[in-house]
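ESCALATION

Customer reports they have been waiting on this structure for their group meeting. Please prioritize. Original submission:
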Amino acid sequence: MKLLSFSFWEKRVFLFFCFLFIAACNDSAINASPLESFTGAHTRVVWVQEQGNGADTYGFGENFKLMGYDSRDGKKGRELLKEIQNFYKPIFTPDGKTVIVSSRSRHEIYMVDFKKGKKKLLGQGVAVDVWKDPETGKTWVYALAGNGPENKYFTTHPLIRFLLKKPKKREIVWNQTHLSWSNFDMSRDGKFAGGLFPWPNAGILLFEQNIWKKYGKGCWTALSPDSSAILWVFDGLHRNLNFVNPFTAEFWTTNINAADGIGGFEVYHPRWSNHVRYLTMTGPYVEGEGGNKITGGGQKVEVYVGRFSPDLKSVETWFQVTHNDRADFYPDVWIANGYESNFAAAGAKEIPMATEEQNIDWPGTSDNLVFLWQDVMAENKLGNDSLLGFSQFRVTPKYRARFNRFLEMDLNGAGFVASLPGEKVLQVLQKANGTGLEFLYTPASTSSKNNGPVIRLENRGRGKFLTVSQKGKDLLLELFSGDKVISNVKISGALHEHRPEHLFIDIQGKKLKLYTNGKMNKEIFLKKNSLESFADIDLLFGDPDAAGSGLNGALSHVAVYAGSNSASDISRKSHMVTGDIEARKSVETIQLKGEITELSLVPDPDSLGAYRRALVVNRYRVHKIIKGVYSEKDILVAQWAVLDRMLLPETKDFQVKNNMEIKVEKFDQHPELEGERLMMDMFDPDLELYYQVGS
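Update from on-call: job pushed to the front of the queue and completed.
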């Protein structure tokens, strides 16, 4: 057998092609990494990782590491820098090679090489976006920099920018309003920017007109990374993205807390990647009490990347980037082909400019309203040009029902009756051949014992029409003809303890659509429209005839509409309501054991005149603080004595030397108590007044 022989150059060429073949094989193996298979291109992710108990959700502290994930280096999650300090909101440069990250505590901006980990100081400020000018190819850093007061929601610092290669030369971009720390995004063409002006007012900045236009309320806005100017606003429920296409004025809602591993809990830090179809977020947030667990953080919080459907109205699938026992916050995602992506349905080329500021307060336009009750402090009225003429509405609490600190109806085992001009409303609804019913409901419990009606429309004295009920975690809608159920819809697992749900029931002719949080959930066809046989109509909340056996939950933002409501209109109304929820402040609840040492006289209900409710103030000697912080020996507590002109049975326990265990909150943190009858037979200027919220 004759052996082949090669010259020196033939060997070099042969080895070169062998190297290319091996490199191609290795590259193919790397391209098969799960993240790259998910996005279809080279992908990098950057985030900050809290090194403690994971409670620093807003990034104030000094206990963070800068982390990164490259789909092609085989290392998955790794630290980009060894140091631990205050790292806040990392942002990729358009080429994906560099990360711009800030120290919120030091007000310093750094440039970090993603691959090599080299860090360079770029100067003072907090970076909010990095943008490449498509005409010049130059990269600009946008930042909040300057002097002035600030808090976790906004800063008075103006928006400035500087070239990445010339960080010392700066120019002011926007100083007409305050801005918020969270997402501020430039459009690819540089004509628009999305942001909070400041929180919770979300909108789009139009650079050519030097104005901004409001589109909703909420947090964590994001503007599409192309030039379509699609804006999302994260809702106060921390579960949905509320979208608007400013060119077409179309509104819709996309849920983002249904990923495997999230379990329906809250998510946070949503951010659009540089590719229109991909977003990132963190979750689940499971620590703490109540409906909003964002401030609790927790070591279970991981980074996720999701892929939108082409119309952005759903998330097709999710990829979990991190798997660790540390809290991971503020992620950003760079995808190699992201700069080529576009939203196909961008619409017109110019955002319509209204001469007056767009109405973003619920319920928006009132053209087809026949009932309106936002909360106990709102005007709750319709003007002279409404379908009913001038009308002002109220709700009357029955038995133990009252109002809560969010000014909502607190059912408290009973209910409320609406002041509804039934005959007049019914005539309008029958003429319109349809109705819409909107409300926000927050269950106090989702145990199997919490069952009963939430809201009802009834043919006065002659039977039911529509009932929405809670059955533990489930929501049940029933339509009646007389007392016979003719149609029903059940949504299993729709309710969560202390978490608000926005619902809209739209009935047009023989078609019923049920929307939850701005998104259509169910559609059914009806055999008949039973409104035709009505003579009068009542609107009831909870079970006003029950004395403690009804639901525990809260209602607000109730509206009844005549005629049709489009899906976009319903979604926008949901945006208006849920956008305000995050603004609800949490208060500290103190749980204590104490002994009554001084009493106020419990009034006879007949002595209250026009008042139907009354509180009495009692003094307690504090024996033990079970939960919360309280340092005084004594405490003054306002406690309900009369509700719905009935003396409460627990007043028999208001006796000196009686020991009680109660939950209290500061009285002045309960605005719903303003104007209530308060009986106080003692005076102590050194003690702050508290209000009993539980026992």
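Sent to customer with the following note: DSSP finds four helices and 48 strands in the chain.
Escalation resolved.
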